[in-house]
């Protein structure tokens, strides 16, 4: 749903919570991002991939050498293929470049090593404590909506209040949990599709501009090709094409407004992540909790 996607610092479980604040590009201003190597896989081996990630992060060889403890000469040899890094060195360089775990695996494989991070299905027995943590947060947030989604904004869990967004949606946009199945859908498609929430968004053009900019930033930072494709898919949905200007006096948070019959709901959200995850599935999960931005919206949910 239309809220900020935070960075993932090393913090305790679900400790990183970020509320969507007004940002310079939130209303359609240009966003300059270097294209991440993960968005295209034609690099000439490990050295080329490392170089492109370093350049995408706008870090010089000297800077990377300083923080990683690898001499700039040896780093140059690695990037040109004249030297082969050890497994430990690959992981150290990936950590200093702040690569997502999936891209760290890709870097290891490019260097000829086995991946370091597993990708465990969320319904696997060993993930029971993770799903329990997610469900605890979702249930505890009632009567307000909350959901969990992955790195491509695909929904993996919802609480009952999410029906305010999803009730009546066509099955190609959202499928509720039935029996042993889990709810499925994509929050960006649900929000921006003309068959989804888009017609009922009071500030559709502003929401669209913020969300497209966010997806493109995330894709560039993470190298997530699926997310890049999703951004372009959502950009092709019909819209007014009107220019979007930033407010002269922005509020503390930037709510979105959604028509529900005669009522206009005003909401903002916070997003939490598993900051110390060492499994790809867990590292790429986020939990979004929605809050009322005015008393009328709070009364709508508490009175349901």
SSE diagram, text form:
Elements lengths: L12 E7 L25 H12 L4 H8 L3 H8 L7 H10 L4 H10 L17 H13 L5 E4 L5 E4 L4 H4 L7 E2 L8 E2 L1 H6 L11 H19 L2 H11 L20 E5 L2 E12 L5 H4 L2 E7 L2 H8 L2
Antiparallel strand pairs: 1-7, 2-3, 2-8, 4-5, 6-7, 7-8
Helix pairs in contact: 1-5, 4-5, 9-10
Rg (CA only): 21 Å
Overall, the morphology is: elongated
CATH class of the largest domain: Alpha Beta
Q: Which spans of ≥5 residues are poorly predicted at pLDDT below 50?
A: 2-34
Give the number of DSSP strands.
8
| N-C termini distance | 21 Å
- The ordered H/E elements are EHHHHHHEEHEEHHHEEHEH
* Biggest sheet record: 6 strands, antiparallel
Number of helices: 12
Helix amount: 25-40%
Mean pLDDT: 84
Helix-strand makeup class: alpha+beta
Number of structural domains: 2
| Percent of residues in beta strands | 5-15%
CATH topology type of the largest domain:
Beta-Lactamase
CATH architecture assignment name of the largest domain: 2-Layer Sandwich
Features:
alpha+beta; 434 Repressor (Amino-terminal Domain); 2 domains; six-stranded antiparallel β-sheet; 12 helices; 14% strand
Characterization of this structure:
This protein is an alpha+beta fold. The protein folds into two domains: 13-33 and 120-302, Beta-Lactamase (2-Layer Sandwich), CATH 3.30.450; 37-110, 434 Repressor (Amino-terminal Domain) (Orthogonal Bundle), CATH 1.10.260. Helix content is 37%, strand content 14%. The strands form two sheets. Strands 1, 2, 3, 6, 7 and 8 form a six-stranded antiparallel sheet that branches. The longest helix has 19 residues, at 204-222.
